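Researcher: Hi, I'm a grad student and pretty new to this. My advisor asked me to get structures for two proteins we've been looking at. I'm not sure of the right format, so I'll just paste the first sequence and hope you can take it from there.
Model: That works fine. Here's the first sequence with its structure tokens right after it:
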Amino acid sequence: MRILITGASGLLGVNLALEAAHHHTVFGVVNTCNLNTTAFTVLQTDLLEPGAVDWVLDQAQPDWVIHCAALANLEACEQNPDLARELNTELPRVLASRCRKRGARLLHVSTDAVFDGHRGGYTEEDTPNPVNLYARTKLEGEKAVLDSDPSAIVARVNLFGWSLSGERSLAEFFFNNLQAGNRMMGFTDVKFCPLLANDLAQVFIDMLQKELRGLYHVVNPSCLSKYDFGVAIARKFGYDPDLIAPTSVRDAGLGATRSPQLTLKIDKLIHDLNATPPDISTSLQRFYTLYQQGYPQKLRSMLVE
């Protein structure tokens, strides 16, 4: 299959592109961050520029498109609401319309943050209630995609992994500070279900191969607090878990509001795929194994200075 991946320099995009390239022909779209790799074809453009979406589709002629590009920084969304809406709502709408016209299958990546997190355990049938601009624009993007292309997949995710900069995921935040011996906070009252980006990539490929459509929660089957996540990383890598101070998110002084209980049910995904994504211990073991294999250094070597 020919796969076009947007946001290919991001945490999910680069890992997805590398994983998919083992068995498929992959084209990765980047904006300002160019990449040096033979694993997939890099297409550099600003997707918000007139004609850019048609250009990348013409170049790649994809069977599948996986749309990872977004403005995902919560504070950046609050400070740049127009840009957030362009990237998180309008661009997905345009891409879905173009994919439907060309007969390409689209998987649009959304977020668990569309829920307010007051209770957790959310299914695809539950009504979202976003608490910040990032989540609102992502929810609007979900609706825009499915309105424009009802055959598309919308996947709500939460993920971790190794990134190009080494500073894009919560797992890297904990790892970097633990390695340096720095003290840090870990939120005891924020729960989530993060899936390793490399594992998420395989789930996405399976979803497309099975020709699924519609809305899915695609997260880890096991959920935990961000504090417990940090402690698990400390123990996996042999660092001191006491460097992580158990803290309430209310005391952290963060700008944008966070949803506290982002635990999602994945029964629909398990049923339709007839498979269950790896649990948190399995994901963390692979995260550790990738480190031992020099994967973070491999990613950094792809960056063009």
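Researcher: Oh nice, that was easy. Here's the second one.
Model: And its structure:
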Amino acid sequence: MPARSEETASITGQRYQVLAAIMLGGIMGPIDASIVNVILPIITGFFGASLATAQWVPVIYLLAISSLLLFYGRLGDILGYKKVYLAGLVCFIIASGLCGLAPTIYWLIAFRALQGLGAGMMMAVPYAIVTATFPPQERGRALGINAISISAGLAIGPTLGGLIASLWGWRLAFLINIPVGIAGLLWARKVIPDLKGQPGRVDAGGAITAFIFLFSFLYFINQAQKLGFDVTTGTILAIAIMAGASFLYIETRSPQPVVNLALFKNRTFSLGTLSALLNFVCQYIMVFLTPFYLQRVLHYSPDKIGLIMTCFPLAVMAVAPLSGALSDQVGTRALAAAGAAISAMALVTMAFLPVAAPPLVVGWRLALFGFGTGIFQSPNTSAVMGSVPRPYLGIASGVLATARNIGMALGIATGGLILYALVPPAVMGQSSLDALGAVHFLTGLKYAYLSGAGLAALAAVFSLARIGAGTEKGKA
């Protein structure tokens, strides 16, 4: 299909086939990330590796994804979103097979890095494809439906990973991506239109400094949680700062920058992106800390913890399509602000969880947070993507994906930092807490959740502060 052919796609109904193809590929990344977290102890034991070495299996995957999202977004604008997406899918399929056949833990880490490179391409351009394919009055609904794939992947990943690993071994958890990926590849190749943004060339200096900045910054966040601020983490942070400053210097002078910084002068784009980042920080404060509460304070089994934690993504999955469709009719600003406010309220209720709580008491709080997140995400994404000129849809999609990944990392780091600052080390070292230890642990959780609530409230304020373009129904 030629570029700029929303009208044709609308007439033929192909736009929903495009959306389904994007969702099939989009579900694999969240499933794969959550599966690996479940089977990591099995992989560690199989290879006889240390925990410090095994941790690189999930870490290198996330670093590889996050560090190149901006570059992939710009590459989509230049070469075409379909080419970047399909290349990422091919890379992901091949890397999944190599992961499943890895002879040592070190080869597995290397193949996971390759898998992350492919997943990054798949994650960088979907918003651009959806925005370019759907007319403005249907964009919110489409983005809301697309959110189902991410939530579904996060919901079924832990259970699927545990089942596969227990029945057939950890290798199949990677190899299962091959048939699913091939089906997604054939379908996407057939139905996704050839859409491009602004032609040009790659800004090599900007791409390299962006990679160094994002990789070193996210690596600093990861290591600072374990090591604190020492010579090693200080050096990593210094590299990140220098690379970030170099990136800004290059981008302000490049005729064809990786990121057109003028986009951030648009209030809807800048505040919407910042709101998205804050939302993911809040999400991962909750997602990271709540399982520890369920395990150490309530003494729940792993399968019970997994079941309770699915209350959050299931609520997002149920609400996001409805919120997106509603935003097409009433606009995005009020809905996004309301969703962020509900998320803040949910985190406040999480802050006052009791020492002894039945599953329902925890579950409805998680579902309330998912309800707020589902209301927030689709309208906010629609507003951001709708505020961007068509030639820059790829980079806008990449910026949102980067904000998501940085938010995840910052959420985990923030939650861990507050918890370790307020809870005595002796209590943190215990896997199962007595009554006194539980009280200390809940004190740390309380302030971590309240900090997340404050950030969610700030996201609500930023959503309301969006004015002008991008706030009217049918436009964002």
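Researcher: Is there anything I should tell my advisor about the second?
Model: You could mention this: Confidence is low (pLDDT under 50) at residues 1-12, 468-476.
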